[in-house]
Amino acid sequence: MPAPAISVAMSVYNGERFLAAAIESVLAQDFADFEFLIIDDGSADASAKIIGEFARKDPRIRATLRENRGLVASLNEMIDHARAPFIARMDADDICRPDRFSKQMRFLSEHPDYGVVGTWTEDIDAYGRPYHFIGREHPETHDAFLAAIENAWPLLCHPAAMFRRDIVRKVGGYHAAFRHCEDYDLWLRLASVTRLCSIPERLLLYRHYDNQVSSRHATEQQIGAAISYLAYRERQAGRPDPTEALDRLPAIDELDALFGREGVSRWVRARVAPTLLYSRSSLRDAGFDLLTRYLHEGGDRKGMWRVVARLVRFGEPARALRLGATLLRTT
């Protein structure tokens, strides 16, 4: 059979709640020349059954059901198995507009200097209702993308991205060390070899809900993103990237040794701490200790008493007392 124009890559782990709608939105695209790679990454729910039912109805679906290996392994596996020159990412909890693929393919065809194109998103909640989200739009040009890197603004929505397979393979695909921010690290590595941007149209409905990865792993995600940015700056300066061969990132206190200079660990805490102040999961996990260490190191105290009150509302009175005591000691 001739190779398709697009390989769609979706990894699923216990995604039964929203999976059918996500698959249906891909199969309903007005650009139909694609194969749909779906890996069930060891789900314990009905995901495999749902995938099998769709695969029996549509021959474009190439399903793999196996044990859990994690998202990074699944994404790299699909890149290796893809038959098309373009890969469209998709998550099991989002919904594509029917013209998403056709508009992204047109953009990449007309802009051969761009290796990745995303889209703007429409934010929805677990029930498909509008979700009020305050944030910057994803950059429309490569120059704006580079500015977003320096200002820690949003870069690309991962499940809305379409990229050239060869150029992603050239930079080594997704890196296992940057679990939960593997897309951010990939965009930064690609920024040195190609151009990236997003189409300013809302071609993906992006779902927000309490149990999604970005909510459950916010602390690890933000720490990884900060280290990825440091690695990007090393590459930009013509120095070796000390994270390139890592399978796992070291503890924050080990970063000075990894990068070969003092102050890196403290910089990471200062960059990450302000991003965790509204995250329920972060204030309940290692993010809380990072925050208190940041304050002991002279970090900005603005708004911290409101975090104390937030901890009380989150049902964490002991941590509220600890943070209040830290604020009093560091006055």
Automatic annotation (TrEMBL):
The UniProt transmembrane annotation reads: none
Q: What single Pfam family name could you report for this chain, choosing any that match?
A: Glycos_transf_2
Gene Ontology MF terms in the entry: glycosyltransferase activity
Q: Domain of life, per the record?
A: Bacteria
Q: Gene3D superfamilies this protein is in? A: Spore Coat Polysaccharide Biosynthesis Protein SpsA, Chain A
Q: Which InterPro entries match?
A: Glyco_trans_2-like (IPR001173), Glycosyltransf_2 (IPR050834), Nucleotide-diphossugar_trans (IPR029044)
Q: Which family does it belong to?
A: Belongs to the glycosyltransferase 2 family.
What name does this protein carry? Glycosyltransferase
In which organism is this protein found?
A: Novosphingobium silvae
